[in-house]
Amino acid sequence: MDNQTNILVKRTDSILYYADSGLPLEQGAGWIGGNAPEFFDDQPDLIHVGNPKYVFYLSLVHPFKPESMISIFIPEDYDEYLENNIYPNCSIKVIEHPISTESAKAVFTNPGLVKHTISDGELSHDDQSMDQSFLIKVGGNPRLIQNEDYYFAKLKEESFTFLLQVDEEGYPETLLQDGCNYPFGFGSLYTRYL
Asked: What is the value of pTM for the model shown?
């Protein structure tokens, strides 16, 4: 529990994850690209609510709840994301769910991403993580691309704190299909929790 306190409360440490195309899925903490978890096979209404269509982005075993995963879905339409990219008007879906294997069905598969395994997390001192490349950073302090108050004012007002970020700078060269763009425009996705 000391690690969790240092990661989420004191924010002196963080957990860093990397994408690896050569690592078997069962040896990692999740995957980016590929098919969504089997958990979502019979629940398309959980993802496709209303007009926007979604594609699978990644799944990660929850670092503090080993019986759970965090899965992220992004709008299929990039303009939908651009128009709704700041909380509380954010079109990205982050869903915590029971551990699940990758589905054999390509219901939500993002055609722009080549599946890579997400490595097990490595504990890092948070100050050091600010100068490192990573795919996912859990806890510590976010490495912000733009430190503008309007991005996080509503989050602070509602007492959310930083949980994790996915940083496209940490993509391996083999993650994107030829001719495909970075889902976040070579940026980052930040998630918060209460």
From this structure: 0.91
